[in-house]
Structure formats: C-alpha cells, structure tokens
Input
Amino acid sequence: MFRRREALGLFGHLKAKLVVSMASLLGDTRMTLRLLGLTAALATVLAACASAPPGGPGGRPGPPDDDGPRREAGGQQLFISPAGEPFRAPPNAPYPVEIWFGGADANHDGALTRDEFVADALRFFATLDTDRSGVIDAFEVSAYENRVAPEILGGPAPSSLRRGPMGLGQDGGGEAPRRRPQGANVLQGAAFYGLIAEPQPVMASDGDFDRRITRDEATKAAKTRFALLDTDKDGQLRLAELPRTPAQKGLRQSRDGKGPGRMGGPGGGPRG
Output
C-alpha cells in the first residue's frame, strides 16, 4: 500500500500526463507548458502537506481538549473567594484560602462575622467597579473574566503577579499539568477553585438577570453565601470549618500520589 505522500505524488504525475494529452489535442504548445507548470506546483504543495507533522504550526501540539489537563501558570495554587476574587500562592505554600481569610478577618480574631464577610465582598466589588458608577456593567464583567480571573474561562493566569488580593501571588516553578480530582469533571469555572459551586461568582450576584450587578445585589449575594457557609449557624466562619475546594483536594492527591485526601484540619485546614 502506498503511503499518503507517494499516493499524492502519483496523483500529480497522472494528472500531468492527462493535461499534456488534452492540450496536445487542442494543438496549443504554450498552453501545455503553462498547465504542466501549474500541475507540478500543485503536486508539490500536496506532497508537502502530506509530509507535515500533525498539530499546530511548526509541529507543535494543538490546544488541549476541554477534558484534558488544566495548567495553572507557574504551577501556582489558586483560590477564588465567594465574591469571585482570585488568590494565588506558590506550589509549596499554604493553600491561598488563608490569604483571603486573613484579609477578610478585619479584627484578626480568627473568625469571620457576617459583617466582615460582606465588607470583604464589597471591597472587591469596588475594585471591579472601575468607573465608580455603583454598578458592575458588561464591560467590567468582561475585564474581570479576561484580566482578573481568566482561569474561570479556561485561560492562563495573568503574566504579572504579586502576592495579595486580586489573585496576586508569587511565581511558583514548573508548569506540570494538573488533572481535576475524580468526579469533579462536572464543575466549571470558579466552582473548581471556590468554596461554593458557582462557575462565575460575579455574575451569580446578578439577582434580576439584567447583566448588571448593583452594590445592593452584591450585598444580598454576600449574605446568602455567608449563610451557606455558616453550617452550624453560630454567626461566624473559622478557617478550619470551611469546606475544601476541589482544586485543594486535587492538590493533596497529587502531592501524596494517592486517592483524594484530607487537607489540613477538619475543614479548609491550614495547609493546601
């Protein structure tokens, strides 16, 4: 059996002979030469296409499938707060839920009250409301999705990162791909990195579905989320009581080389 390249070359040769015969019947020598040149060029292009390596330009692999491994820039850990704010940390640092919790805990007593939780959400709301209109509009939502937390749409982390709010962490080494833990393939967007299964927390605050988020809507959404996380109804959240994110579970599984494991203490735990 001929290989594809050989088959294409034979096709070009036979086509050239056919052109010669047809042109000869027409008695036009100049036309014969022109057609021969065009046919030879076509055969060369087809043969080159057949021999080209698979994948993208330069033989590079194409983009991964949607179900394939996800990469986090520099191998960083990622946590997305209930309000949608991303926090990042190097691979061997504590899971960055601690960065969020420490910042939201205004009086540093180790517990988040509802007022502190809501205040933290409104602080992030203000950073997204760049025109200070009191509303996060479609343009500001797009900026959030593409520049602040592009991972929720499957994109890479921003290239320039610093530790702290807005997902600002340290570069963290290699880019080893990470797979989601087993059974987490139904999760999308921020749900993989957050405490609550919301793919897009900012838009999830849009209570009247008008594609705009007001400060009042952000406040109401924060109160609802606090109630969901305050499972013992004591009016406060502690770090060890928080659920682990699917990404956090998968990180421990990857480190241990075992099945899903527990991270830190009974809840979110001190370490990732």
In short: The two ends are 56 Å apart (CA to CA). Helices lie at 4-26, 29-51, 97-104, 114-128, 138-148, 201-204, 215-229, 246-256.
